[in-house]
Amino acid sequence: MLSRMMLAQQRRTAIMDIVRRQGGVRVSQLAREFGVSDMTVRRDLETLADRGLVDKVHGGATVAGPGSTEEPGFDAKSVRQRAEKATIAARAARLVEPGMAVALSAGTTTAALAACLTDVPGLTVVTNSIPVADTLHRAGRDDQTVVLTGGIRTPSDALVGQVADAAIAALNVDLLFLGVHGVSPRSGFTTPNLAEAGTDRLLVAAARRLVVLADHTKWGTVGIATIAGLDDADVFITDPGVAPEARAVLAQRVGALIVAEPPHPAGRRQRIKPPRETEHP
Length: 281
Prior knowledge:
By secondary structure, the protein is α/β, with parallel strands linked by helices. It folds into two domains: 2-65, Arc Repressor Mutant, subunit A (Orthogonal Bundle); 82-280, Rossmann fold (3-Layer(aba) Sandwich). Helices cover 39% and strands 23% of the residues. The chain has helices at 2-22, 27-34, 38-50, 74-78, 82-93, 108-116, 130-139, 162-169, 194-206, 244-253; strands at 24-26, 54-57, 60-63, 101-104, 124-127, 145-148, 152-153, 159-160, 173-179, 182-184, 188-191, 207-213, 225-228, 235-238, 257-260, 277-280. An eight-stranded mixed β-sheet has the order 6-5-4-9-12-14-15-16, with helices on both faces. It has a three-stranded antiparallel β-sheet with strand order 1-3-2. α6 packs parallel to α7 (130-139) and α8 runs parallel beside α9 (194-206).
């Protein structure tokens, strides 16, 4: 019994090392790494979460307690709210028409959106996100143009700095889809990375319309740098988990609030085919 307890403690220590190094981890990865069941890994993560050492998320865990300057890596953020991000991305894609020029900032929600845009013909996409550019490049459409800004890479796989800023400043796009770290009434849309905030502000200035994509967990989170105010958003797309008080503030402050809901499960009989949503002009 004592031996088994020691093994569990050693495994949890090793899990913490992985989480600190990567910023986040999936249950399936840990199960393969240690040769144990998913249930055993979940119990380990619950124990670590109870101690305040990690934050449990759907399918894994991330470093606990983000502060205003803490910046999780792209892989760490990709395990959070995956279903909500997919729903938001699918709704955002409906705003894009063939022949448009659109910009996608860095982020896991905008990366999900990129996967929804691979079938749109004649599209020009400007992005400072390596995963976004990679997704569109792999689609291999000859009628799509992808402009990757260049620049210095951040933990969230964003390209920022003078090279990125100079490329963006010379462009004009129809829509900007902006992913954000946090949303609050006072601070607006924020990021924990100062350089990324500067590049994102230039993306906002280059776009005729600003569309912000943020799942419900972003409400109340504040990064060190503000990208734009709530009033600057022409459209804000989120998921049904957004709190009623947040929904009320957003409905008053943004141009249009869209609360996108996923389709009903396939097993249920449902005559309404389009995804349900709530929209506030």
